[in-house]
Specification:
Elements lengths: L3 E7 L8 E6 L13 H10 L2 H7 L9 E4 L8 E6 L9 H17 L4 E4 L11 H13 L6 E7 L4
Parallel strand pairs: 1-6, 2-4, 2-5, 5-6
Antiparallel strand pairs: 3-4
């Protein structure tokens, strides 16, 4: 299957993909101490706490690293959590690009044929939407992932 990239406006949790990417922190602060925001907050509200309990078992995630968990009550085969922000809660070009690379490697290892990305680093991370979109798209285009990649520009409908 050739690589297909779509950029859509909407909600990541409404996409028809096998796995979604959750822009996460480095897993230093316990998940239950954090106020749910963005994608993580939506996952907790609609998918439950199980993915975050699984994520906690992996310990600290290197900046740009990725961890796979189940999707809880969400209709996906899994969630790939990426450490897209540094210890100061900012995203950098490195953290965004490496997060995308790491997520695509995991998606390929798990034989996923479709993956949904939020704009990693454009929310809490402080990077502009356009810059983030450009970096994510470039990394997907230069990867060896075969399948469908959906980049979602968030529009609230939940």
């Amino acid at each position: 299957m050739p690589l297909v990239i779509h950029v859509v406006e909407g909600n990541l949790l409404d996409q028809n993909v096998e796995v979604i990417v959750n822009a996460w922190n480095r897993n230093v602060i316990p998940w239950w101490l954090l106020l749910p925001q963005g994608i993580s907050g939506a996952i907790k509200r609609h998918g439950g706490y199980e993915p975050f309990r699984e994520l906690a078992k992996h310990g600290v995630i290197p900046l740009g690293g990725a961890v796979h968990t189940t999707a809880g009550k969400l209709p996906f085969r899994g969630i790939i959590h990426v450490a897209g922000i540094n210890m100061f809660w900012f995203a950098t070009e490195y953290s965004i690009r490496q997060s995308v690379r790491s997520a695509l490697v995991l998606a390929k290892e798990k034989n996923y044929r479709s993956i949904g990305f939020p704009l990693i680093g454009a929310g809490t991370g402080g990077t502009s939407e356009q810059k983030t979109l450009s970096m994510i798209r470039e990394e997907i285009e230069h990867s060896d992932f075969e399948g469908e990649a959906v980049i979602v520009k968030y529009i609230s409908n939940r």
